[in-house]
Structures are given as C-alpha cells and as structure tokens.
Specification:
Pfam families: EAL (PF00563), GGDEF (PF00990), Response_reg (PF00072). This is EAL domain-containing protein. This protein is α/β, with parallel strands linked by helices and 588 residues long. It has 24 helices and 22 strands. Helix 9 crosses helix 10 and helix 17 packs parallel to helix 19. It is elongated, with a radius of gyration of 29 Å. 36% of the residues are buried.
C-alpha cells in the first residue's frame, strides 16, 4: 500500500471466497499483512449468502471457477437476497476472455482481476473498492441523519445516493431507476453499454486519479450527443451506460456510432491530448426486465479487433451461450477420452518418399460430434486449458511414435511433428520437459519436431527464443507454421533457431494458375533456403501445384493430394501401401 490505512478502512470486513484453501490463505495473509483486521476465508460458495446474513462484509473477493455454485451464481444469489444493499464484489479469475469479464460486470462485479495477479495491484484495487464502500456508507449515514433533521434536503440526499462518489456521474442505482422509468412507457427502452478500452493504459501511465477524472469528463461530454429523455452514467470502473427510450434500430445504431467516434477523437485534458478507444454493445426491447436489458447490451459487446459497435440478437446470444457451454466442456477433456490424434503424411516432393507426418489434434464431443480445431483451440488458449491439452498431445504422440518404431511400422528415419501453442511454448521449462519426455520414451531427437505459428512466437518473443535455443542445442527441429500469414519479419526470423518454414496453403492454392502466386512461393522458398531452412508446402491438392513446387525447389509436401489427416491405424495402412507402391514401381 502506498499509504497507511485509515482506522475506518482497516476495520472494514472482507470475505475471501475460493474453493482452493491455498488461494484463501494467500489472500487473507496478504490483506492481514497490510493492516486489515477483519478478513475471513470461505471455501464453500453455497454458504456465502448465509454468511452475509450473519455478518455483512464490505467486500467479497470472489473466485469464478468453483464447484457446485460458481462465482456468477454467487453474484446472482447475492442480488436476489440483498439487491443493491449487498456487498461489493471483486472477481478473481484465470479466464481472460471478454465474455467472462462482461458477464461478471453485468452481474454487478465492481472489478475483475486476472490470475495470476500482481500483489500490489490487488491491494490497490481492494483499497479503491473499500474506499468507495466507505464513502457510500458514510453518505448513507449522513443522508439518514439529514432526512430526520431537515426534510427540505431530501432531494439533495437522493442525488448523493445516485451519484458515483469518485467521478460525480450518475451511478448504477440512478441508471437502473432511470431505466425502470423508461421501460414503464409505451415505446420500450434501449441501452448502450460502452467499454473504455484505453482507460487501464491511461491509469498505468498517468495514475488512477487522472483516469477517474477523465472518465468524469467523458461521461459528462456524452450528454451533448444524447436525445431528449436519455441518461448516461457510470456502470463500472471502465464502463459507461446510456439508457433512453427506444428510438428504433437505425437511430440507435447511428447514436452508438456517433458516441464511439466522439470518444476516439482527441480530448484536451490536464494539458494533454488523449484519445479513448471504445466498444459499444447495444440492446433494445419492451417488457424486458431492466437488469436483463443491460445484460443483453453487455453480451453484445464486440471482441477487441472487431467492428466497435454491435447489437444484441437472439442468434448472437445463442452463439455466445453455445461457446460458453463448449468452453465448459473443454475443462477436463483430456481425462474423458474425447481427444484423439490424426496424422497427415509428409512426402519428399521430388521422390514421393514418405519422411514423416504431422500430428493433428481432434476432439469428438459425445453430443456434438467432431468439433473444429479452429473453434476449440482458441477457446483452450484463452482459458488456459491449452496447457493440459498440449501436455496430452505431446505424451500421446510420443507414445504412438515409440510403438510404431518398435513394431517397424514406420522407417527408422521417420519424423513426427507436433503443433505447440504460444502459452505452452512460453512456459518456463517447456524445452527441458520436452527433452525429458523424449528420453523417457527412448526416442531420438531426430524423430520428433515441433511447429509453432508466427503469432505464437510473437506472444513472448524473448521467452520463445530462450526455449527454442535449448531445443536447437539438443537437435530438435523447429518449424514456423503458416509462414507469411503473420508478422513475417526477417528482423526476428534471423534471430530464431528454426530449421523449417511451412508455406501456408493460401500461397499454394493458386500457384498453378497465377504467376503472382508462383513468384511469391518461389521467393519464400529461396528465402528459406538462403537461411539454411527446409521448406514444407501445406495444402497441396493438385498435381499441377505439386509440379510447380518441385520446379521451384520445395523440399516437402503435405496435403490432400497425398492424404487427408488419418486416424492412427488408417495412417499406418496408408504408409504401408505407399512403401509397397514405391517398391514395385518400375525403375530406369
């Protein structure tokens, strides 16, 4: 803490809720070391409401992923039991996806802290939340006293209770009252949920005080663009909310775009010129509960990098709920026997000799069937489940390769390539763990290689370079997958110990028909060879493509022209047939 705690702040009760006793002990020790005197831990999330009825905490530090009743369920239970009189909640989560954050904030969380967390940041956020709660408590006490003594000040006290004490903007309570009033009319209501994406960066660079005052200025500035009957205010730390009578889809879309563009303009503030990137989720309806309408707008928030304005629809929400269900199904997938590996052969292009294969992950959901890797792998990466899945892939691919070599079902110089995710590659000790696995299975380093994407390398280039250097010293070959579709920077490429570049299928598709595509593929091939790298062409589907690649000196081919990804036994039969064909082929 940068300053000593005041006596009032020290005595505010804090409840830590997490099913992991180690996490509870860590947080309680951390808070008590900083001078907080009323810190309790709770391992059973289903007991939170009862504990609050017995003794209401000022703040709950709440884990999201818990058995029986998760953090979202706890917040719903608190809302049902206490309404606006419930405790403040800071959510602790290892999930970094926008849907988890939006859902937590729409359910009333004051803030979201991502695990693993920085101790100083957690303490500052706890202090900020408690200071706000202390201000609310004091103002409420003042309001009660003043109402008893001076009837004419009722309106002023009501204004205080509906105002955020930090920014001076209408707070969540005021916005919900305004929304309830609008929804009582005949037109229905609309909500614009605005996330200020750059606010956290401004707070880090210029301080939280600057960020809070900037939010106040921007919140007040939005008023100039709002139609009659609209109300704007602060919904969360970096979220503004606009409520208004439903103007119709076109007018609401135009208003959302106007607000988003205005926020992105330069704003003079404290001698600086600041811009504010933002995203807007919108929803409108009649006969819908006010809280539900806000939730619909929050669910409509576009992901970073998408178009900045999006409106709620039943199809959108259904897709998000489907994604959420799939995310939940990913948990523990490695223990349920739903994953398997398919293998796609790699051939030396001039001779057609099978030299290895790429192991490709597949997920067969018991109710949904095969799930596209393009869908579930990004989910696994965002949730952190990719680490367990990546370990599963390494172990099972090595088990398969060990058995194939022992049984003589693949040649002794056969090499198996495995895709490695960014979070897996950049984990401390990844290279040593991979080498230890190979030794445990008795596999030579020449029999195994890894493939990483350009974007995966750039996630943490320093750590990636460190891990790849260890593998390179031990003779593990490393390929850059989908080369040319990401950064493609020679400045970083020449510093990395890679042995293979894989030309993405996008460069191969039109190679037989279009001279520009041929020239581009030839340039990449020459570049790779000039750096001492082999070249693998992905997505080879026609004989014409193969002939062009052979002519430009491409070393290895992979694609449907030769074989689709095959289950293990089918792949081994394919290899046997390929060897038999090669042995009986005429020579000379």
């Amino acid at each position: 803490m940068p300053e000593r705690l005041t006596e009032a702040l020290r005595r505010l009760p804090i409840l830590v809720v997490d099913d992991n006793p180690i996490n509870v002990e860590l947080l309680t020790d951390l808070l008590e070391d900083q001078g907080f005197t009323q810190v309790e831990g709770l391992l059973e999330s289903r007991e939170v409401v009862a504990r609050c009825r017995q003794s209401m905490p000022a703040l709950i530090l709440l884990d999201i992923r818990m058995p029986h009743l998760d953090g979202h369920g706890v917040m719903r239970a608190l809302e049902a039991a206490f309404g606006s009189r419930g405790p403040a909640v800071i959510v602790l989560t290892a999930q970094v996806d926008e849907a988890t954050r939006s859902q937590a904030l729409s359910l009333g969380a004051r803030d979201v802290v991502t695990k693993p967390f920085d101790h100083g940041e957690v303490l500052q956020r706890v202090r900020n939340a408690l200071e706000v709660e202390l201000r609310y408590a004091r103002r409420h006490q003042e309001a009660v006293a003043l109402e008893r003594l001076v009837a004419e000040r009722t309106r002023e006290l009501e204004l205080l209770s509906n105002t955020d004490p930090v920014t001076g903007l209408p707070n969540r309570r005021a916005l919900m009252e305004a929304l309830d009033g609008i929804m009582a009319g005949e037109r229905g209501a609309a909500v614009l949920y605005i996330v200020l994406d750059a606010l956290h960066d401004i707070a880090r660079l210029h301080g939280h005080d600057v960020a809070e005052r900037l939010v106040a200025q921007l919140g007040r500035g939005l008023a100039q663009w709002l139609p009659e009957g609209a109300r704007q205010g602060l919904w969360g730390g970096a979220e503004l909310l606009v409520v208004l009578p439903d103007p119709g889809y076109v007018a609401l879309l135009e208003l959302a775009g106007t607000l988003q563009h205005w926020l992105a303009d330069e704003h003079a503030f404290d001698g600086m010129s600041l811009t504010m990137a933002s995203r807007v989720g919108g929803a409108a309806g009649r006969g819908v509960a006010a809280q539900r309408l806000v939730q619909m707008a929050a669910l409509a928030l576009p992901d970073p990098g998408e178009a900045p304005v999006r409106f709620h629809s039943d199809a959108l929400e259904a897709a998000q709920r489907d994604d959420l269900e799939l995310n939940q199904a990913l948990r523990g997938v490695t223990q349920r026997g739903e994953l398997f590996l398919a293998y796609q052969p790699k051939l030396r292009m001039p001779t057609g000799e099978v030299i290895g294969a790429e192991a490709l992950l597949r997920w067969e959901h018991p109710g949904r069937g095969l799930i596209s890797p393009g869908r579930f792998i990004p989910m696994a990466e965002a949730s952190g489940e990719i680490l367990a899945i990546g370990d599963w892939v390494l172990e099972h691919s090595m088990q398969a390769l060990t058995a194939w070599l022992a049984e003589g079902r693949v040649p002794t110089d056969f090499s198996l390539a495995v895709n490695v995710a960014a979070r897996q590659l950049c984990r401390e000790g990844f290279a040593q763990d991979l080498l230890a696995r190979l030794r445990r299975h008795g596999l030579p380093v020449e029999a195994f290689s890894i493939e990483v994407t350009e974007s995966g390398l750039m996630a943490d280039l320093s750590q990636a370079r460190k891990q790849l250097a260890v593998l390179d010293r031990e003779g593990i070959r490393v390929a850059i997958d989908d080369f040319g579709t990401g950064h493609s920077s020679l400045a970083y490429l020449k510093t990395l110990p890679v042995s293979t570049l894989k030309i993405d299928r996008a460069f191969v598709t039109g190679i037989a028909e279009h001279a520009d595509d041929r020239q581009l593929a030839a340039t990449v091939t020459a570049l790779a060879h000039g750096m001492g790298c082999d070249v693998v062409a992905e997505g080879v589907e026609t004989r014409g493509q193969a002939e062009c690649l052979i002519a430009m000196g491409c070393d290895i081919g992979q694609g449907y022209l030769y074989a689709r990804p095959l289950p293990a036994e089918a792949f081994l039969h394919w290899c046997a047939d390929a060897r038999a064909s090669a042995e009986t082929a005429p020579t000379g």
